[in-house]
Amino acid sequence: MTIAQDAASRVGVGSIMAGARALTVEETQDLSSFLAGGATVTLPAVSNDPLDDLVVRMRPTVASAVDALQVAAVLEAEGISDRAARVEYGFADVFGLAEEVYRRLGPNQVAGKPARRPAADRVAALREVLHGALYLLPTAVFPAVLSLVGRASLVTGLMIAGGMAWILAGGASWAAYRLLGAGHPVGAGRVLRWSALGGLPVAAGLGVGVVAVTGDGYAVVGLAVGQMAYQMASTLLMFYRRELWLLPVMAPAVLTGVGYLIAGRVMLPIAIGVGVASVVLAFGLAIAETVTAESAATDPAAPGAAPGAEPAPYLALGADLPVLPWVTAYSALSAAYLLHAQTPYLLGRLDIAVAAAPLIVGMGVVEWRARRFGELARGLPAQVRLPQEFGSRIWRLLLAGVGTCVASVALLAVPLLLAVAWLRSVSPAGVVMAGAYALLAGAYFLGFLLAERARYGWLCGALAVATAVHLVARQFVAGPSGPLVDATWYLGSAALLQVLFIVGLAPVLGQVWRYR
């Protein structure tokens, strides 16, 4: 999700340039007849009030504004901050200044239509909500894989390969979306394609490292490569809005994986073979989609085709390129914060280990609510009249998004915990850990919004603090006390992460120009 460009500032620049162009070509009026007749030419009085000068200067830009919030958006886009409003014009903030500028502009003759709540795109919402379930499709084959790979190797391989794929997918998708937004679809496809292809040898190398440490067989190398291939395939297909292809492609793997659980070792070769084939097919489709998109973008007969050769992706990114290390660091810290809490319990505590599954499934809801927040927020300025009303509405919208994400993951956790309780038992630590992951869903929602506003430094700092708090507590407090104390501290760190993310959003959430 990316922030829309500031429409108000674009309109303002266009109006100023149009006015300047008109002045340069306007014929000079002949004043000799007035002067010869002794007529008096009265010049406009020069105002000593800087606010009058501001109104005159801004009038061509904001003359058609329908409320003070539109004026505030343009003032902020012009670089007038709350401090400038206080020091130069004597108002408490930009909103107060905007109300006075709007009042002095006089009545607006432009008749505006009542603003409506932006309509929801149900197809896009359904597609996004399904993202979380798509992430879990390969887990149906894990029981069969476990028979070939040692339990320690399985856990280590999944954690390392999954974390590396998370980092690689985060950086590649960010760069691809930036390139696509800058009008470089070919560069976006190449970044995604080479990131996916380059991730396979990286995963293989990590798998070899796991073999060297654990002494298990080399089957873990295939597991790591398969994990990387599926995650990158999912990323590429989601970028091109083809992620629903994963359902029919992975359906045979899911069915044979379930068949292995029912029939036992007689289904092992079939489950492994079909699982490998499904992942290979998904990866091939994803790579082919990047090639197809590139061909369409460079076809001269295609509408909207690129007129010429695009620059190299690292050149096309331009000023955005220095942000990429921050994006990569944010992806790495996000993966570390989630995975470090799971790792100690994946082998021996089923109720704690599976508590993260509702969060993974619920990530589709988090993506959907983050996008919907942007849509609703951009519609707010046209629905309210007073800056104070905008501020309260945007905060209510934010808290509603957090609440929806937390409640969705919590509701998904209920049937899972009941199923685990039916199979064996659920400890209080498992329930607390499920609550921690529900809070983490709200934090990830806030993280999406901070990332849209490019506050990656704050994101990385907050994640580092939350991770450090839990690790220190695990080492010095929870260690002697057991999983319940550890899970409780993780719950507290997730709550802390939410608070830190909200603090990071507070200075920028109410800036009206961001929603134009």
Describe the 3D structure.
- With 516 residues, the protein is mainly α.
- Helices cover 74% and strands 0% of the residues.
- It has helices at residues 7-25, 32-36, 50-62, 68-77, 82-89, 94-105, 122-129, 131-135, 142-146, 151-181, 185-214, 219-239, 246-263, 268-298, 313-317, 324-342, 350-353, 357-379, 387-423, 428-452, 456-481, 483-509.
- The longest helix has 37 residues, at 387-423.
- The radius of gyration is 28 Å and the shape is globular.
- The two termini are 16 Å apart.
Summarize this, please?
This protein has 516 residues and is an all-alpha fold. It is built from 22 helices and no strands.
What are the low-pLDDT stretches, counting only 5+ consecutive residues below 50? Answer: 1-47, 109-114
Strand content: under 5%
State the separation between the terminal residues, measured CA to CA: 16 Å
- Count of individual helical segments: 22
| Structural Rg | 28 Å
Order of helices and strands: HHHHHHHHHHHHHHHHHHHHHH
What is the overall silhouette? globular
Mean pLDDT rating: 80
The biggest sheet amounts to: none
Count of β-strands? 0
Helical proportion, percent range:
over 70%
Specify the structural class.
Answer: mainly alpha
Based on the model shown, name its key terms:
mainly alpha; 516 residues; single chain
List the helices and strands and how they pair.
Layout: H1 7-25, H2 32-36, H3 50-62, H4 68-77, H5 82-89, H6 94-105, H7 122-129, H8 131-135, H9 142-146, H10 151-181, H11 185-214, H12 219-239, H13 246-263, H14 268-298, H15 313-317, H16 324-342, H17 350-353, H18 357-379, H19 387-423, H20 428-452, H21 456-481, H22 483-509
